Amino acid sequence: MKKQQPDLNRRSLLKALTIGGSATAALAVTGVSAAQVTAPTSSKKDTNGYRETAHIRSFYDSLRS
Predict the structure, then answer these.
(1) CA separation for the pair 45, 26 (Å, rounded)
(2) Mean pLDDT on 19-28
């Protein structure tokens, strides 16, 4: 009778899933947030945004006709 070798990849996957699930549950119970999102605060006006200039308006007018 031949002995089967244990599938180490499967065992490591099952261990990782168990540890990951436990860590997720612990974070949920303690209320620790994984990522904190904060709104950017800028005191000066953004000058690199979209600006409709005269040549842009003329291009838009050419599309309408």
Answers:
(1) 43
(2) 80
